[in-house]
Amino acid sequence: MTATTPLEALYKVYLQCRNVSTDTRNIGEGDFFFALKGPTFNGNLYAADALKKGAIAAVIDEEQYKTNERYLLMPNVLEALQQLANHHRRQLNIPVIAIAGSNGKTTTKELIREVLQTTFNTFATQGNLNNEIGVPLSLLKLTSETEVAVIEMGAKHRYDIQFLCNITEPTHGIITNTGKDHLESFKTLENTRKTNAELYESLEKTGGTAFINIADNDLLQEAASVSKKITYGKLETADYFGKIESFYPLLSLSYQTGASSHPIHSKLTGKYNFENIMAAVTIGKQFNVPDEKIIHAIESYQPTNNRSQLLQTGSNTFILDAYNANPTSMKEALENLAGIPAEKKVAILGDMLELGEASHEEHFALVKFLQTLHLDKIILIGKEFGKVHDAVMCVHFTTTVDAKEWFSKQHFENTTFLLKGSRGISVEKILP
User: Fold this and answer.
1) Half-sphere exposure of 155 toward its Cβ, with a 13 Å CA cutoff?
2) Among 88, 123, 211, 345, which is most exposed with the fewest C-beta within 10 angstroms?
3) What's the sign of the alpha-carbon dihedral 144, 149, 155, 160?
């Protein structure tokens, strides 16, 4: 008789649980608790509380906390969570679409989910649970009824995407783009590019399918050895070709299938969302979702959470794209603002965080770029912009609170504003 391995024992408990939880603050009856550790906390200390609140079992990695059989002792709780997720994923013979990239991952994921769920029982990463904890938790939400999964993958260090692919084992993948994100840890754009490309390496090994923006030469080059490739974008040589029809106030585009042109009028703002929408169209087509369902799904999608939202207050329009920012996404948003046919245009920009040693150089470069745009007003917020703001005509504030106080006393009319900055700056708080 074959002995049960620790992983098999975990999986037996998992199959009986209601949900996998790592936080006793929201644990429920029938949950399976994993006592994770962090720099400032030790989940082992809360395992007993989890059981009292109704968890069926708790995974721990410190022996002194194992007082009965409901505590499952493992060498490392996080590794146990990851191994369990991979084991569960292997039980499911379904397409798993991985999404990596510097900008637009979450919006692309949401659009793909909207399209696929018109036809399939679809699971997609909730929020931005896209790291070494979030990805396993996402996989463990897949059930026997799930027909396709869309898993977002974030990275801050080399080999992060490779690691997440080893857990997820994707059958399909897309890299939205490569930009200057997390330079504090990546150090160089080349490291960012190589890390994202780890998704292609995974697909190459498994014979998976890569979806590639045909206008991105770097991605095409990185994916050269992937045997199954589907291209999309603004070049007619793409497998799925589309073009922007208009981008203000909201983005409209059309895509071709044979001799037919299919218009899409989205609720997203910004030219930079063209590729995100085309990615969703392409994946929908590859999964045989009818055109009318693809179009309806994308047109129905309402952006939230400070991502590509268009808000109207009186005669003023606010382009709210303030969930996060890096030099690449900031420049794209500013180019979009500069190109719109608005009477008056104002940029309200917060610091770009997590740039490390490149912070001063990148903020200065952005300020120099602002000089070329001929905007009616520029408002900069944060300590990093404070070091370089003298290079451009602008109003500068150290904090968003100070900026909001000033903004509330102004009398703007018929003005279009771009609000963009890193999450830690919370530029959206300026909104009236």
Assistant:
1) 31
2) 88
3) positive
Whole-angstrom distance, CA of residue 363 vs CA of residue 356: 12
DSSP assigned state of 422: -
**Band of pLDDT at residue 61, cut at 50, 70 and 90:** very high
Contact 128, 73 (CB under 8 A): no
Contact 205, 173 (CB under 8 A): no
Strand partners, 89: none
Look up residue 56 and give its two tokens.
């069926």
pTM over 0.90: yes
Paired residues of 213 in beta bridges: 232
Q: What is the pLDDT of residues 356-415, one digit of tens each?
A: 999 999 999 999 999 999 999 999 999 999 999 999 999 999 999 999 999 999 999 999
Domains, the chain: 6-74 (3.40.1390.10), 92-300 (3.40.1190.10), 309-430 (3.90.190.20)
Contact 416, 346 (CB under 8 A): yes
Q: Taking 70 as the threshold, does the pLDDT of residue 285 lie above it? A: yes
Task: Give me the mean pLDDT over the 423-428 stretch.
Answer: 95
Residues linked to residue 317 through DSSP beta bridges, in sequence order: 312, 416
What is the DSSP annotation of 262-327? EEEE-S--SGGGHHHHHHHHHHHHHTT--HHHHHHHHHH----TTSSEEEEETTEEEEE--S---H
- With contact defined as beta carbons under 8 Å apart, do 399 and 381 qualify? yes
Other Cβ atoms within 10 Å of 113 Cβ, number: 20
One-letter amino acid of 306: N
* CA dihedral sign, ordered 222, 193, 170, 119: negative
Q: For residue 413, what are its two tokens?
A: 């009319």
Enclosing H/E stretch for 317: strand 316-320
Band (283; pLDDT cuts 50, 70, 90): very high
Q: Which of 6-10, 46-50, 182-186, 207-211 has the lowest mean pLDDT?
A: 182-186
d(CA 130, CA 115): 21
Identify any residues that bridge with 96 across adjacent strands, giving them in sequence order. 149
pLDDT digits (tens, 9 = 90+) for 84-114: 999 999 999 999 999 999 899 999 999 999 9
Joined together, the tokens standing for residue 76 give 């490392």
| Helix, strand, coil share of the chain (percent; to 5) | 40, 20, 40
Say if residues 408 and 432 touch (Cβ distance below 8 Å): yes
Q: Which amino acid is at 215?
A: A
